[in-house]
Amino acid sequence: MASGIPEQLNRDILLEIYQRMMDAYGPQDWWPADTPFEVMVGAVLTQNTAWLNVEKAIDNLKQNDSLSVDAITNMSQARLANLIRPSGYFNVKARRLQNLCRWLDSMDTINSLAGLDTEQFRSQLLSINGIGPETADDILLYAFNRPVFVIDAYTRRLFTKLGLINGKEPYEFLRYGFESCLDPDESLYNEYHALIVRHAKQKCIGADECIHCLVERPFH
DNA sequence: ACCCAGGGTCATA
DNA sequence: TATGACCATGGG
């Protein structure tokens, strides 16, 4: 059964975990960005990188009037790399941002993407060198409001701790599994992933009142 | 001083 | 399919 879903995963459990995190932390109002384009840039810059460093890089781009498809496409890779230096992997990410922007430029406008079917849209994004499954799903969900369930390291850790997955499943298997258990609700997926990240940052204070433990062990 | 963060690519087996 | 090397800054 290569195309099934994780055995322990089901709608009721996923909705209960969601509700507990929502009760504990409240709405997260993601993605922290002013425009869809800024979401896309941030999605690339945050690859294996702390968000605080990404903010510095994005600030640099804004300060230099360079947070646009044209600016990024036209400036030299070396200059772009220098602007995004705080986000780490700056040479790699400069190339990836330009790949993304060249692709966007080949589209008419960002709005013309609105007509694309979500799976075709996803394939297009994945064809860009430097855009992998998680970055593509961040973009689809948070820049274009498509109902895709983002699988990241935090998602794997949480659901592994809860004993619902083993953590080594392929990306697409997990994504399909989660999406199969839930309605294709963009708003739910948006908040769900944001809450998982919020929860991951929560430190355990080691008592019954510890919100962290209550969420980590929802069935104790 | 050490560890790793809101991954992805490429080479290799 | 699955490992491993590689990319690099800055906060805790």
What does this structure look like?
The protein has 220 residues and is mostly helical. It folds into 2 domains: 11-29 and 148-216; 36-142, Orthogonal Bundle (Endonuclease III, domain 1), CATH 1.10.340.30. The protein has 12 helices and no strands. The protein has helices at residues 11-25, 36-45, 51-63, 69-74, 77-83, 90-106, 118-126, 133-142, 153-161, 171-181, 186-200, 211-216. Helix 1 crosses helix 11 (186-200), helix 2 runs antiparallel to helix 8 and helix 7 crosses helix 8. The chain binds a DNA duplex (13 and 12 nucleotides) through residues 42-44, 46-54, 56-57, 85-93, 96, 129-135, 138, 150, 152-154, 170, 193, 196-197, 200.
For the biggest sheet, the summary is:
none
Number of DSSP helical runs: 12
What is the CA-based Rg, rounded?
18 Å
Q: Give the helix/strand class.
A: mainly alpha
Question: What are the main properties of this structure?
Answer:
58% helix, 0% strand, Endonuclease III, domain 1, mainly alpha, DNA-binding, 2 domains, 220 residues, 12 helices, single chain
Present the secondary structure layout.
Elements: H1 11-25, H2 36-45, H3 51-63, H4 69-74, H5 77-83, H6 90-106, H7 118-126, H8 133-142, H9 153-161, H10 171-181, H11 186-200, H12 211-216
Helix pairs in contact: 1-11, 2-3, 2-8, 5-6, 7-8
The structure holds a DNA duplex (13 and 12 nucleotides).
Please give a quick description of this structure:
This protein is mainly alpha-helical.
